[in-house]
Amino acid sequence: MWTVEFERFVAPARFRPQIWRLFLGIVLTVAIYAAGIMALLLAVWSLAGTAGLMGWMQNIAAADTPTSVLLMLATFGGMFAGPLVVARLLHRRPAASVLGNGVLGGFVMAAAITVAVFAAALLLMPPGFPLVPNTPLPMFLSFLPLALLGLLVQTGAEEVLFRGYLQGQLAARFRSPLVWMLVPALIFGSLHYDPVTAGSNAIWLVAVATLFGLLAADLTRVTGNIGAAWGLHFVNNATAILIVALDGSLSGLALYVTPFDAADVGTLRPLIVQDALTTVIVWACVRLWLARRATRAAA
Description:
Helix 2 (19-62) runs antiparallel to helix 4 (77-89), helix 5 (103-124) crosses helix 11 and helix 10 (202-223) packs antiparallel against helix 11 (227-243). The chain is mainly α and 299 residues long. The chain is 74% helix and 2% strand.
């Protein structure tokens, strides 16, 4: 399971791999994440006042308008910064080591492959339901640059925390992939549990998120950086938030929404399985591209 690239990725974490540092690092990251959210809410309060703040907090949680989607994505700024600060101050390792070397190349490669597979899946398996127009195109385009930046922050924050920090520090302490691959993936998946919104579909969405976490962990293992996992994550979330969103679920900026919500059992569950299979296909294509590149390099 260990690769030369992953050994290089884990090496900076070996200097201070103590579990108490990891637990304290998680606590500090949560604190920095919360402080970032508070700073954002203070900025909203300074503009909207106390009465307006309560309404905006509800809007951000629902992400049902273009501005609230941007604000929701901005809340992940603290999560992005947290592991970088913790790595430097608590583990005495360079902050950039949490990302690994070659992040940009891995991101672009995986994002391009993901776009290609998603487009092929759409052509081969078009949705069996009518899409509902949501955000007018001129408004969508005006928000798009900030939305893409926000998605870079949001997906990057989750990759930095779960693959960069947690996976790397656990691998520095434990040899078994059952620890450094499975534990972060299970935590990542469990944080997607939302029975209020998804009803009985919630556990299925947790399963898909956990599967994604395992595949992202594998890409990090093979490449020695979070770039490929980040690229896959970015395109996946951009599709679900900007192109076609579930009705009532982070739908404020999507071009289209589905005619059903996250709790629809009959319609959504087959789509959940299809989404999981598509993600596995993307992962397999990325692994194949990496294997062929390694073969060419060795020739």
